[in-house]
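Comment on this:
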Amino acid sequence: MLDAAALDTLFRTARTHNGWVDKPVSDADLHHLYDLMKMAPTSANCSPARIVFVRSKAAKEQLRPALSAGNLEKTMAAPVTAIIGYDLNFAEHMPRLFPHNLDAKNWFSDPKVAEVVAFRNGTLQGAYFILAARAVGLDTGPMSGFDNAKVDAAFFPGGQVKSNFLCNLGHGDSSQLFPRSPRLAFEEACKVL
């Protein structure tokens, strides 16, 4: 079992950040984050998540028109904003990603099935992304509140990849945190049968 400090980093004291200190996020940080995230499980190792790291001023300006008013300032101020997307054509990689069953690509030949699998597993990888970011010392600010169609047109042209959510990355400014919101108790959210 992980020690208490690691559990705090990943879950208990980790927070969704809305403000950022002036400290850059390096390419090495982003590679380290992805290299951890990619090792977590997906259905048949399908790995449909696709990520665009928006860091430059020009790229942030391209993102600006898609942001809701409540997410605009914090996103423009974040050192990096990751667009977490999912690839509808993920099955093209199945012969390499699931080599012990070369028929796996055909499991997803129905576009409706492929879309459900891509969204579910891409979302799962997005959660891994948040945990991996925390594990490498970055703070996160995951969010909805943007126009998916505008993001897709700007960052995923062609329609093969769809945006799921945005996640600001950097070193959070703890002075801008809201008080922690309550969580449901075990008895409210779980059943043991």
Summary: DSSP finds eight helices and four strands in the chain.
